[in-house]
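Weekly modeling sync, notes
Attendees: S.R. (lead), two postdocs, one rotation student

Agenda item 3: backlog of single-chain predictions. S.R. asked that every request posted to the team notebook include the full sequence so nobody has to chase files. The rotation student volunteered to paste the first one in as an example of the format we agreed on. Action items at the bottom.

Example entry:
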Amino acid sequence: MDTIMVLKFGGSSVADNKKLELVAKKIAKIYDKGNKVVVVLSAQGKTTDKLIKEAKELSNNVSNRELDSLLSCGEQMSTAKLSILLNYMGYSAISLTGWQAGILTTDNNQDASIINIDTTRILKELNKGKIVIITGFQGIDKNLDITTLGRGGSDTTAVAIAAALHAKNCYIFSDVDGVYTADPNKINNAKKIKDLSYEEMLQLSSEGAKVLHNRCVEIGEKFKIPIITKSSFNEEKGTIITDKIEEDTVKSIIKKEVSRVSIIGNGIIRNFKLIKQIIDFIRSKKLELLNFEISETKISMVFKNIIPDENIKELHDLIF
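Predicted structure, as returned to the notebook:
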């Protein structure tokens, strides 16, 4: 039986024609291995921000319905471009909008949730041997109005489609090659994490790690769809998010906003040595702590003053 592969590419991965060509070659390579391929795309680069800015230049009271209609154009552009390119390369491909792909959502514009996906059209095109390219971030409601799923919603589209198609897993491609123990742009010795549980990833996302949309992780957990985060621009192994749980293992440290720091890891509430290390560190740096909370998978701290990145690096080195 043919394997259905669901691949999602973010806006930075398809930002221009050169990057679009790299993505097309990656897709072709996967298709050539005999897989049925479904691709979900975000809008190119900063297209969504640009459309929002242009709408607000026209009116300071844009209705959410019209804004959704406008913003959906970004994903339609990227999917059509990729389909044009793949067909030029000799591959049979077709682009589908959210409604053409059977994605039914609630009617709360700008923050809709997926109710159901009728996979009839997707499977029909796959069975013709086509690469199916679907607009992320959008669907259609009971009134046949276009809706969007909120920022980062293309991740949710991809995992929901993977669940509806009973795919083995869902690949999320971006400009980073996985999830790290800290922000690799700020902590140069941050380490890539091989495995994460759904709960750990949910905590990471809720604390501001811009890796995956919260709802996509919830869907992955509900339908037991492994989510694999990888880079669009290399073949390095990424991070696999599943229901696998490792007890008492610290996974990542995140600085949210200016004064909130969180440490994520299953069983962290029982890691008394770690808790003591953190408290001793706070005292040694004379940091004024306003709030300290511990749960099964997270230690969350709020400080009175701005926490410098240097302190985060020191804490990261202490823990890892």
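Discussion: group reviewed the output briefly. Residues 64-88 form the longest helix (25 residues).
Action items: rotation student to repeat for the remaining queue; S.R. to check formatting next week.
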